[in-house]
């Protein structure tokens, strides 16, 4: 399932863009976008807005000071 692949990949890095995740796990970007949206609603990942949008596991990246 795409959500498990996304979580497993995010566990190995700090943060990534959706298109980077899709390329790394071999899935379509649209499928990754949907999986990330569902994971965000489940409070397992969070969107980070740092000049562009990144995705990270919930709590893995410290908030900017």
Give the percentage of residues in beta strands. Answer: 15-25%
- In terms of structural class, how would the helical and strand content be classed? alpha+beta
Total strands: the figure is 2
User: Rg, please?
Assistant: 11 Å
H-E order? HHHEE
Low-confidence stretches: none
Give average pLDDT, whole number: 92
The main pleated sheet reads as:
2 strands, antiparallel
Share of residues in helices: 40-55%
* Shape, per Cα inertia axes: globular
Largest sheet, spatial ordering of strands: 1-2
Please give the count of helices. 3
Distance between the termini: 36 Å
Based on the model shown, name its key terms.
alpha+beta; 65 residues; globular; two-stranded antiparallel sheet; 2 strands; 46% helix
Summed up:
The chain is α+β, with helices and mostly antiparallel strands and 65 residues long. The protein has 3 helices and 2 strands; from the N terminus they run H-H-H-E-E. It has helices at residues 2-10, 18-25, 29-41; strands at 45-49, 53-57.
Descriptive account of the structure:
A two-stranded antiparallel sheet has the order 1-2. 46% of the residues lie in helices and 15% in strands. Strand 1 (45-49) and strand 2 (53-57) form a beta hairpin. The chain has helices at 2-10, 18-25, 29-41, and strands at 45-49, 53-57. With 65 residues, it is of the alpha+beta class. The protein is globular, with a radius of gyration of 11 Å. Helix 1 crosses helix 2 (18-25) and helix 2 (18-25) packs across helix 3.
């Amino acid at each position: 399932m795409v959500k498990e692949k996304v979580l497993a990949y995010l566990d190995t890095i700090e943060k990534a863009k959706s298109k980077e995740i899709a390329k790394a796990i071999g899935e379509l970007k649209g499928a990754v976008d949907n999986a990330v949206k569902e994971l965000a609603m489940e409070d397992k990942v969070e969107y980070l807005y740092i000049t562009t949008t990144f995705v990270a596991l919930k709590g893995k990246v410290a908030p900017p000071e």
